[in-house]
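Q: Convert this sequence to structure tokens.
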Amino acid sequence: MSIGKVVSMSSRLVTAIAPSSKPFFEKLLRQGQLMKRAFYYFNDARLVIKYMHWEGPEIEHEKLRAELIFQYHKLEKGLCMPGPKRFFGADPAKATLSLIRRWHEQGFRKDSTIYLGAIEALRSYRAHIDLYPPQSDGAQGLAQDIDTLLKQHLDILVDLRTPMPHGTALATDFESLTRLMLLRRSVRSYTSQEVDIGVLRECINSAQYSPSACNRQPWRVHIYTQADLITALLQLQNGNHGFGHQLSRLLIITVDMKSFFDGTERHEPYIDGGLFSMSLILALQAHGISSCCLNWCVKPDTDVKAHLVGAIPEHERIVMYLAVGHAAADAMVPRSARKGDQEIVQLH
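A:
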């Protein structure tokens, strides 16, 4: 018998004898429930310790890719900084070269956009070195090392050249975005028409341009199309009752914890995953596809079940379920009044 049940039974017995003690035991029960839920953080800590690190003898593709992006993105950002130009970035450049060597040793694909993006970042950085050469002995030989690598990559990939000019939005872009934001509502009434997988992929590719910490793009999208599997997954989520049975497509958005270097980034999976999710939702809306965000506020054991049922690796944290479909002709949505800016803005 659990401690909570013992406390509950004891409180009923005591309050039957002394009714005045009821508020005390009610408070005790509330505190007990809060303490029980606080233990959920132990599971979060376990996953952070297990997966959020890049050190170790084993070389995993996801970790190596994340660290490569992390390092060469420093060079990209440095090339875009305002003010007087100077030499910079010896350490991230050396780290990028080292990671590329490890990439070669592991036989990972050299047509990966991440790998090729690193090459183009080094190519631009090498041109910067010619204009602003290093002054310290510690950076000597860096240009030669980069040249040795670039000899293997003589073709310049224009689509991946970095940095690039900043684009300017048009007035109509804001109007279009505002219209999408106003049209976007959580829809709970769908037709039986299936959403085309190709269209989903197109929307996902568009959402790929969402910002993320050091551009690591840690999100993943699991698409479910089998009715029995969708039903099993929805049974683990408590916000789809009354309409979940209509879905022919269910998306689960996750974030790979191996993309992060340690526990200081423990909140980043949800930040990056949330940014991607909103971009995806707007991309879907622009395609005429409706959606409904389904929260993932569950106990750790329910989270484990969802990973098993959905064949989702443990190192991917579930950010949310996303119901997608074509809205029924007579679908109604909540008005969902929004707070005014005076309620949410604090001008400092």
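The chain has three domains: 3-38, 61-160, 171-325.
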